[in-house]
C-alpha cells in the first residue's frame, strides 16, 4: 500500500481514480481519445449507478442524499467564538471588545488559538461520518465536511487565513492508517477558500497516546511538546483543520507552537465538536 507522509506537499485526490491518472507515454490522438472516453465513462457510471446515503441509506448520487445534506448542518447552537463549545444562554458573557459570545473558560484562561469554527456536535448521526473518514478511509466525507466548513466561514466575519494546514499525525500512526483524515478536509477546504494548503509546515515529532483514552489534564501533558514548525509562519494567519475537537488540548498545543514560531493568528476549522452536555 502506498503511504503518503504528512510532510508531503502533494496528495492525490482521495475519492476515486480520476481519468487523468491514466498515463500514456505519448500524447497521441488515440491516447487523447481514450482519456476522454474514460472520463465520460466515469461520469456515466456515477449517474447510472447511484450509491447509498451514508446516513439514511437511501439512494444517492453523493455521499449524502439531498434530504440529509440539507437537514443536519443547520444546528441552532450558540457556540463560544474561541473554542466552539456549545453555550447555554445562562453562560453567555460578553466581556470582550468584539462582542461575540465566549465561554467562561476561554475568558478566564484563553487558549493559544484565536477562533474556532465547528459544523456541529460530535453525536449521531454526523459522528458516523467522522468515524467513516477516520477509520474506514471514506475520504469523500472529507470533501463534504470541507464544503460545509466553507459555507460556515462565508457566513462568518472571520478573515481568511494565509495558509491552511492539517493537524499532523505521527509517522507511526500515518504509516498504520495510510492517510491523514485532517488533510482530506484541509485540502478541499483551502481550494474552496482560494488559499494555499500545506501539509509540511507543521509535523508531529512525538508519537503520543490516543487522546480519547486520557482525562483533560493528561491530554494537555500528552501533546505539550508534540509538534514542530518547519515552514515560515512569521506574521501569518494559519488555519488549522481537524476532524473532531474534544478537549481542545491538541489544537491548543499546536497553536502555541505556531505562535512561538511567529504566527500572528490561528483559526481552527473542525468538522465536529464534542459537547459537554
From TrEMBL:
Ranges for domain Phosphoribosyltransferase: 185-271
Record SUPFAM superfamilies: PRTase-like
InterPro entries: ComF/GntX_DNA_util-trans, PRTase-like, PRTase_dom
Gene3D superfamilies per UniProt: 3.40.50.2020
Top-level lineage group: Bacteria
Entries under Pfam families matching the protein: Pribosyltran
Similarity annotation: Belongs to the ComF/GntX family.
Protein name: ComF family protein
Organism per entry: Caballeronia calidae
Phylogenetic placement of the source organism: Bacteria, Pseudomonadati, Pseudomonadota, Betaproteobacteria, Burkholderiales
